[in-house]
Amino acid sequence: MSDPFKPYVPDEKIIPELTWAPVVVGCLLGIVFGASSLYLALKVGMTVSASIPVAVLSITLFRLFTKTFGMRSATILENNITQTTGSAGESIAFGVAVTMPALLILGYDMELGRIMVAAVLGGLLGILMMIPLRYALVVKTHGQLKFPEGTACAKVLIAGEEGGTTAKAVFFGLFVGFFYKFLNVGLKLWYDVPEKIITWYKGSSIAAEVSPELLGVGYIIGPRVAAITCAGGILSSWVLGPAIVLFGEGLTTPLFPATKLISQMSVHEVWRNYVLYIGAGAVAAGGLFSLLQSLPTIIHSARAGLSGVAKAGLGKGTRRTERDISMKVVLGGSLLLVILIWLYPPLKMNFIGALLIVVLGFLFVTVSSRITGEIGSSSNPVSGMTVATLLATSLIFLGLGWIGPEYRVAALCVAAVACVAISNGGTTAQDLKAGFLVGATPKAQQIAILCGALTSAIVIGFTLEVLNTASTVYSKKAIPGEVHVPSVENLTKMEKVGGPESATDTNLYHVLQLPETPKEGPLSKLLPGKYLVDNSGKVQYLVDPGINGILKTRDDGSSVQKYEAPKARLMSLIIDGILAQKLPWGLVLLGVAIAIVCEMCAVSALPFAVGVYLPLSTTMPLLIGGMIRLYVDKARARKNKREEETDSSPGVLFSSGLIAGGAITGIALAILSIKEGWISSIDLSGLMPAVSTNNWTAVISFAVLGLLLAGVGRGKLNKA
């Protein structure tokens, strides 16, 4: 019989742990990394783990507080509380970003209250569902389940306690990312997406979004995944787009689902009207393949997790490291959350939906927690489990004849709450494993992550609303001539023009939600979407959302950044396909076939499919970051006989800082752009137009950033 595990801090040793300072700092760091993760998920459909950067920042910040204000030094358990509290933001951001924007794609408003409630309820429910599983998944299986990120985080905390870890790389990356993004997107000193249209190869272009956050993501995910994702982008931009133009430019009538001739379309319009659906089909199939590949693990995880619930202890242990939140609190809190989910009006939930959240949520939280223990959170198929939840919900609703608009919203809300719970459940398991290794009190960690989940969920709702509002375009030019609504009195909802356009128009308009284009009548000229109508019935504005919108310029010619939200498109695809039955299935099935070919060639279909869905400009910087990681790994292997960087190496920490700094700047600029004139007042592109409008300025600036990342990764700049 093996000796019992002995944590870094012995069970009998009592030191400060759940104090106010670590919880507050953790909440603030969780908000920062949650907002940056949301920004990232809307752009590329993925996030990176925040636990290690938060742990490193916690260690350094508390050391700084000690030197500056003479505060008591933080203990290792207090630093663990900070990283536990702060880690909730990233997982909640992912769950919100892959589900709630689908409402916009389906033609509905997201509504701030709906986003916040789904995030809060899902985040808290995921934590409460994980608590009974702690003994079975963290304690009993110690030595079997590795929990890669949780173990690495514990090593960082122990190294910090012994004086071996600083956060210079993270802070340096955050500063560089913030400064670079502000010069680029704020002052507009160079293009953020340099692009060259290939005139001799119609329908194609070469482009790259020179953003620090995408470079950092490419470095962290590594060369293989980055290359596979970019390969999907090359297929969509250099194969599918040109093929559609080649075979379709001679058509004299629009080809469904477009309402415009292919010969009259720009490269982006071809991608938006056709390639986008192919990519969505590939992402849907890739998500299902990911789920099927994990099915044996899922079944095994569910059995092992559920069988261990009875042995959980749950507050009955007398030893400090065995104490959990009371089972009465877990059951009572879970029941209260489910009742709130059922009764809260904006969620449009019914009893069946609430029941599905409980059953599927607990099953997949169990699975998510165990998979996190086996292969880590980065490989956890949260999207696949969310797809399975949405498929099951939509099919049940279809069988019951529930296909109206309110049921589409309800089905998506089921998936949203479940997705946040699944994502946060895995993160909670990872944090509890780190706490188990350093000798934390489980109850203290559970209280801390509940606080982090609550604060992050509230702020993430505002962040999503701000990003969408700032990039929403109110356009009169997009209306094809004069269009009148036959019965304006039936439009009961009223709304004013928002964004910069509100400065010249303060009128109140009726809101027309058009889920699909009518086959005949005056509205047959309009694309599906949201419109503002005056009292006479005349359609005045198209309200093009910031997330998955089609207009990248306002009527005054100013550019607007849009967010593609690839995973949210997948959710809308499922709901539309099952409940509304109005998809261009030919294009969707092409994407499914592409995913099948990838799997048959032993290439992971999901990252390739995400690349097909996203523009090449988004996947190209991922490839560049991945290639820099390959170079650094080979250089370090030659020098130190090490094969690759770890999660706490300088290059990875610097990349985490780039992601946070770039994303925070993007969010700050989005807030400024809501008010007319604020962004234009800091626009310096007119001072040196020959430089700021030259593609080579952007390429050289991005190359300098890449060289800086390579230098930090190799350790050349660490002393400096």
Break the fold down into its secondary structure elements and pairings:
Elements: H1 20-44, H2 51-69, H3 76-97, H4 102-105, H5 112-130, H6 134-139, H7 148-161, H8 168-186, E1 195-197, E2 205-207, H9 212-248, H10 267-293, H11 295-307, H12 327-343, H13 351-375, H14 382-399, H15 405-438, H16 442-470, E3 473-475, E4 494-496, E5 508-514, E6 529-533, E7 539-544, H17 566-580, H18 585-600, H19 605-613, H20 616-640, H21 650-673, H22 678-681, H23 689-692, H24 695-714
Antiparallel strand pairs: 1-2, 3-7, 4-5, 5-6, 6-7
Helix pairs in contact: 1-3, 1-16, 1-21, 2-3, 2-7, 3-5, 3-15, 3-16, 5-12, 5-15, 5-16, 7-15, 8-21, 9-10, 9-19, 9-20, 9-21, 10-14, 10-17, 10-18, 10-19, 11-13, 12-13, 13-14, 13-15, 14-15, 14-17, 15-16, 16-21, 18-19, 20-24, 21-24
Description:
By secondary structure, this protein is mainly alpha-helical. Among the domains are: 20-167 and 286-470, no CATH class; 473-544, no CATH class. 62% of the residues lie in helices and 4% in strands. It has 24 helices and seven strands. The chain has helices at 20-44, 51-69, 76-97, 102-105, 112-130, 134-139, 148-161, 168-186, 212-248, 267-293, 295-307, 327-343, 351-375, 382-399, 405-438, 442-470, 566-580, 585-600, 605-613, 616-640, 650-673, 678-681, 689-692, 695-714; strands spanning 195-197, 205-207, 473-475, 494-496, 508-514, 529-533, 539-544. It has a five-stranded antiparallel β-sheet, with no helix packed on it. A hairpin with a 7-residue loop joins strand 1 (195-197) and strand 2. 54% of the residues are buried. Residues 310-315 have low confidence and may be disordered.
